[in-house]
Design brief:
Blueprint lengths: L6 H15 L5 H17 L6 H27 L6 H5 L1
Length: about 90
């Protein structure tokens, strides 16, 4: 049986993904991750099937762990800021 995932759980994972994506030190990785998170949630916002919602929620949790690992790796190998970052 598929457990019901509440709207608050979905919003919490969305906010966590956005928060973790902001931690990327590389400008291009940061913007790509933020764009993918937003686009992915917009693409699936009209889902009604509980099985598909659970599947996408689990996918988001897996991606959150991947982002956390990649942020740590990115911090280990820092690069210089891009010109566009210095302007902001």
């Amino acid at each position: 049986m598929v457990s019901n995932i509440s709207r608050t759980h979905i919003l919490a994972i969305y906010k966590s993904l956005l928060r973790e994506s902001q931690k990327f030190t590389n400008y291009n990785f940061r913007l790509y991750a933020l764009r993918r998170v937003r686009d992915g949630f917009k693409e699936h916002k009209s889902l009604q099937d509980h099985k598909l919602i659970k599947k996408e929620y689990d996918f988001a949790k897996d991606n959150l762990e991947i982002i956390k690992r990649q942020v740590i790796i990115g911090e280990m190998y820092k690069t210089d800021k891009l010109v566009i970052e210095n302007q902001q």
